[in-house]
């Protein structure tokens, strides 16, 4: 049987059966547990979405799927049901991402490291900002996503983790503490990052694209969060800028060898590699942002060195990477 090959009618029949039997009996009959991640909402009622998707198979393929045969996640059961036009909502909101925590932490810092209440206009404003950020897909959010209550709670989680706070900390995740520590260690840099995030969201420059997934950014690390990192990488891929940089280097009698390791694409690959090199923007994200990119801020870097630079924050300069490479020769 092809998993996920179900139709709307099969799902509606399953919902009827679910209603007739009641939740507990339905789940027990097919061996399912209560939904932890997604609920199907139909005519004002909520259903365990994975169980419904699995049981619906029996109306198309003659037998229901067992829970261990497939995942209920957004790429499987939740997706199949959405593709059929059903409303599937997330039970929990996604954990706070680094980008979001930077903004929350900035707000707490500007409030002398005290938490803010849900009625505070700055909390309401941040709540609206977070809802605009393309960090979490709409499908993963529910109706309480980053509402003023949730934002206020987060400001207290952060404030009560501050080293000067006397009392018992409220909850909060490990990432809260990491971002807080970054603010304590490098306040100017983190404040700038928060400002750039706010500006980029307000101007629409950072909000236009699809959500940035963790997978997409897995091999990259930037203290400034995913949105600014993506903006940084997009600038580096600007073809016009790269072309001008390459022309400027050649005009001055230079070669297109990697500034860190000396790799030369043409020497290695002949005609196929001629003229190729990547551009790396050496100005950190929290300092970039305003104004145009200057050619002097770009370094010519081979693809391997470029990956290695971005892999771990803080990013080494091309010169620092060259020292590492030379020390190993
Ligand atoms: Zn290189
Ligand atoms: Zn780069």
Automatic annotation (TrEMBL):
<dbReference type="InterPro" id="IPR003615">
    <property type="entry name" value="HNH_nuc"/>
</dbReference>
<dbReference type="InterPro" id="IPR002711">
    <property type="entry name" value="HNH"/>
</dbReference>
<keyword id="KW-0255">Endonuclease</keyword>
<feature type="domain" description="HNH nuclease">
    <location>
        <begin position="245"/>
        <end position="307"/>
    </location>
</feature>
<keyword id="KW-0378">Hydrolase</keyword>
<dbReference type="Pfam" id="PF26345">
    <property type="entry name" value="ScoMcrA_N"/>
</dbReference>
<keyword id="KW-0540">Nuclease</keyword>
<dbReference type="Pfam" id="PF01844">
    <property type="entry name" value="HNH"/>
</dbReference>
<dbReference type="InterPro" id="IPR058807">
    <property type="entry name" value="ScoMcrA_N"/>
</dbReference>
<protein>
    <submittedName>
        <fullName>HNH endonuclease</fullName>
    </submittedName>
</protein>
<dbReference type="GO" id="GO:0004519">
    <property type="term" value="F:endonuclease activity"/>
</dbReference>
